[in-house]
Amino acid sequence: MISQWQLRAAFAARLSDMYGREVPAYTTLVDVSREVNEDVLRAQGADAERLGSISRVTAERHGAIRVGTPAELSQVARVFGALGMHPVGFYDLREAAASAIPVVSTAFRPVDGEELARNPFRVFTSMLTPADPRFFDADLRSRLEAFLAARELFPPELLALADRAVAERELPDDEAERFLQLAVAAFELSTEPIDKVWYETLERISAVAADIGGVRSTHINHLTPRVLDIDELYRRMTERGIEMIDAIQGPPQWKGPDLLLRQTSFRALAEPRAQRTEDGSVISGALRVRFGEVEARGIAVTREGRALYDHLLGLLDQRAALHPDGGPPCSSEAESLGDDRTELARTLWAEHVPGTERELAAQGLGYFTYHVVPDRPGDGSRPPTGIDDLVEQGWVRAEPIVYEDFLPRSAAGIFQSNLSGEGSRDNAQEGAAYDSEWLSGAIDREVLDPFALYERQQNESLAQVAQELRLDGTPG
Q1: What are the coiled-coil residue ranges (predicted)?
Q2: What does the alpha-carbon distance between residue 204 and residue 100 come to, in Å, rounded to a whole number?
């Protein structure tokens, strides 16, 4: 019998092999990531594994797919449910970028700490929003919804096997093999000719909309390895002649704790795709829709930590606007901060973000698990009751919780950087309402709150500390 986590690990590995064959530059990205990770491990030793063992980091991937309807998203949830993955978080990319990106998203991933340690594979999954009049008028919406309703992304056999894996939490060897074959095939790039006129109609609205609603299948849009030094990765990829997007998305590189998530990618490559013209003939064309992303993960932050991050992004936008396009600063404050957005960000982080993990925990800005130290003070004294004092006096150590989720502005920034045009949107129209509650109903399963998951993990560790140290007053 093959357990869910084994299915997940096998699926991630096979998907990576398939994507490497389809997009050779992805294999280069994986190779360079491995080289950087090995170099960081040699230079930093155990500190390099502060946010996960090197075996986990090396195996770690996140994928990204795009679907068109709630029904398709519900089927995706069944497939990933077979792998022990749950929908976590709601991301509205429509509001996160200036370009037309008419999608809302969630991420399917394991949620249990042990499951994440075994294999942390996650898939960022976006769904098109045809009901949003800012992007689609009534006629185009009707045509788009009819097109989407007529296609089948996942064969019934795959869904039946997925449901069995969810119910029984495992599959027999032969059924597991069949499930993996069908699941990987569902995300391969189709060779079916694209309706050229229909695709271009959607592309005028949004290249993302065309990639979702202009074809009769779905595919892996990108697959992302994890790297321990994303700045060095960016430099080495550029040296190899691979064109990277202009910037690394997310928090800046700085001297303090790594927070949240940093991402970058190589630019979407022109891939040959057969196209069917109005007269029915098939011609050879090319589309730029898939790219290679890489990520560096940091510490999960609390709601207060996230509010601080969002506040700093706003400040960064304001200060960067004082001297756009690298031009001369227009105030003494801007001049003191320099004329580079990255330097602006570093300065802001140094001003406002705690410079150590201990300060981060003490100010309630980051999530940690807490563990009793084996060689804690043995002088017969009673331990203090406060967690800060326990850490300070050597009774307990704090270990940072890895951020397992995503940032909508960063995701939109990656999408936007790989688009050939900004598309079109009518901001005079009122956008259609989507939120986490709506998405939960659409896929008939709860979209989990990532903050609640991190808080539960932290609280469980605190309860274990209290029990071991008899902080509840129980005699030792």
Answers
A1: none
A2: 10
Reference 231, options 209, 254, 210, 208; nearest CA is 254
d(CA 186, CA 145) in angstroms, rounded, equals: 21
Q: Give dist(CA 103, CA 136) in Å, integer.
A: 12
For helices 230-239 and 24-44, angle between their N-to-C axes, nearest 10 degrees: 130
Taking the chain (476 residues) in runs of 10, the rounded mean pLDDT of each run is 96 94 91 96 94 91 96 98 98 83 96 91 96 95 97 98 97 98 96 95 93 95 94 94 90 94 89 92 89 94 97 89 52 42 90 95 96 81 89 94 94 76 82 94 96 97 93 56
Long-range contacts at 461-464 (CB < 8 A, ≥ 24 apart) = 461/368, 461/369, 461/370, 461/371, 462/370, 462/387, 464/370, 464/371, 464/372
DSSP letters along 275-337, please? EE-TTS-EEEEEEE---EEEEEE-B-B-HHHHHHHHHHHHHHHHHHTTSGGG---SSHHHHHH
207 and 193 in a single domain? The answer is yes
Q: Which residues pair with 287 in a beta bridge?
A: 271
Structure-token match 């230079």, residue found = 43
- Same domain for 188 and 51: yes
- What is the rounded CA–CA span in Å between residue 291 and residue 104? 20
Model pLDDT, residue 476: 41
Q: Distance between the two ends of the chain, CA-based, in angstroms? A: 44
Q: Do the Cβ atoms of 91 and 411 come closer than 8 Å?
A: yes
Residue with tokens 């992007």: 135
* Residue 6 within any structural domain of the chain: yes
Parent domain of 474: 367-400+449-476
Q: What is the pLDDT of residue 413?
A: 81
Return the pLDDT at 73.
97
Asked if residue 332 and residue 433 are part of one domain, the reply reads no
CATH of the domain at 178: 3.10.180.80
The reply to whether 40 and 154 lie within a common domain is yes
pLDDT at 326: 45
Using CA atoms, how far apart are residues 463 and 466, in angstroms rounded to an integer? 5
Residues 80 and 187 in one domain: yes
17 φ, ψ (degrees, to nearest 5):
-60, -45
In-domain check, residue 405: no
Q: Give domain status of residue 238, yes or no.
A: no
